[in-house]
Specification:
2 domains, Aspartate Aminotransferase, domain 2, alpha/beta, binds pyridoxal-5'-phosphate, 12 strands, Aspartate Aminotransferase, domain 1, 16 helices
Length: 393
């Protein structure tokens, strides 16, 4: 067979993948795997990365998901973690040592930024330079002799700004610098950073890969050597493994990833076009709109757009902002995103707890900014809900 398409990869685990012809694999809910004799133990430990010894390392329920995620992302290998943050912290640690320098973009996921600022910087003397990341020259200027990592998130959190992945990967490779991308927004369906030369791709599987708002998990995908190194160090030693049952739920979720993403995209575009024209909206950030400042770059490096967007209300009157935020009926209030249910969140609530007013404004975020995740409900119903909410302010 020629190249297998993503729908098929998501649906199949390979012919006769599971014992006794089970169409869905069982959950291997066990902590250890027994071996035959002395020589078998000896041989098994020679290839710890690929063999089943103990569930803090490998487990068949986890392995089947890792293989599927590696395939659909065009990576050689993948490792699942107990959360997206576990995948992020392990990956960054695998690329840096004491005294190194990291280049990153301003609007990375909040807790990832806290990890750099409140942990790596004070504890290990890691320096960080923040750039907007919209111009390749910014990267060139930010690189120092001790830069060991460029950490990307494209589209980034809240403002959804993009970085040119191919150009950054090329620059980094020429200088021997590792690249990591948080690819959660696009999902493996709409963006394939490894094909563009990025070293490690991370997803919070708590978002689209899980998609049902019932699992917290993360994954790192990359070349076999990088993932094997990560396995024996930051994965096995820190121990942030995923439970077999949660991996099994992810396998269930992956079956529908492509059709869910197509639906999120379709509804999100419809909602974004409605908001773009609404007189009470000052600004909307959604890479799928032709008016998005980096629309051309998005089209070049992504094959579609997911369901998360942000917009700014025209008013800066906090009472009115709260009236809108509290007044929707289909959009539920909550953090996280990427599930079947539509959600609304006001980034200002979190950022103002962490940052000074000046820092907050420097992030390009305002009090009236709203982040919405478009779920799998009818787009028509979602628009009606937003329209009614906007009419109250
Ligand atoms: C949620 C999220 C994470 C963290 O994932 P968890 O599974 O919650 O630890 C990382 N990056 C982005 C962009 C996210 O939205």
């Amino acid at each position: 067979m020629k190249k297998t398409n993503i729908e098929t990869l998501l649906s199949h685990d390979g012919k006769k993948a599971h014992s006794k012809g089970a169409v869905v694999p069982p959950i291997y809910q066990n902590s250890l795997f027994t071996m035959k004799d002395w020589d078998d133990v000896d041989k098994t430990f020679d290839d710890r990365v690929n063999n089943y010894i103990y569930t803090r390392g490998n487990n068949p329920s986890v392995r089947v998901v890792e293989e599927k995620l590696a395939k659909i992302s065009r990576g050689e290998s993948a490792k699942l973690f107990g959360s997206g943050m576990a995948a992020i912290s392990a990956s960054i640690l695998s690329c840096i040592k004491k005294g190194d320098h990291i280049v990153t973009v301003k609007n990375i996921y909040g807790p990832a930024n806290s990890l750099l600022q409140k942990y790596f910087k004070p504890k290990f003397g890691i320096e960080v330079t923040y750039i907007t990341g919209t111009d390749i020259n910014e990267f060139k200027e930010a690189i120092q002799p001790n830069t060991s990592l460029i950490y990307l998130e494209s589209p980034s959190s809240v403002v959804l700004s993009l970085q040119d992945l191919e150009a950054v990967a090329k620059l980094a490779k020429a200088k021997g610098i590792k690249t990591i991308i948080d690819n959660t927004w696009a999902s493996p369906v709409f963006q394939k950073p490894l094909s563009l030369g990025i070293d490690l791709e991370i997803h919070s599987c708590s978002k689209y890969i899980g998609g049902h708002s019932d699992v917290v998990a993360g994954v790192v995908i990359g070349g076999e050597k990088d993932i094997n190194d990560l396995f024996t160090k930051e994965f096995e030693l820190f121990g942030a493994k995923i439970a077999p049952f949660e991996a099994w739920l992810l396998l269930r979720s992956l079956r529908t990833l492509k059709i869910r993403m197509d639906q999120h995209q379709k509804s999100a575009l419809t909602v974004a076009r409605f908001l773009e024209k609404h007189p009470k909206i000052a600004k909307i950030n959604y890479p799928g709109l032709e008016s998005f400042p980096q629309y051309e770059l998005g089209k070049k490096q992504m094959t579609g757009y997911s369901g998360l967007m942000s917009f700014q209300l025209k008013t800066d009157d906090l009472d009115k902002i709260k009236t809108f935020f509290n007044g929707l009926s289909l959009f539920q209030i909550g953090v996280s995103w990427g599930g079947h249910e539509s959600l609304i969140y006001a980034p200002a609530i979190s950022y103002l707890k962490e940052l000074s007013k000046e820092q907050f404004e420097g992030m390009g975020i305002s009090l009236g900014d709203m982040r919405i995740s478009i779920g799998l409900e009818s787009a028509e119903d979602l628009i009606e809900d937003l329209d009614l909410g906007l009419s109250k302010i």
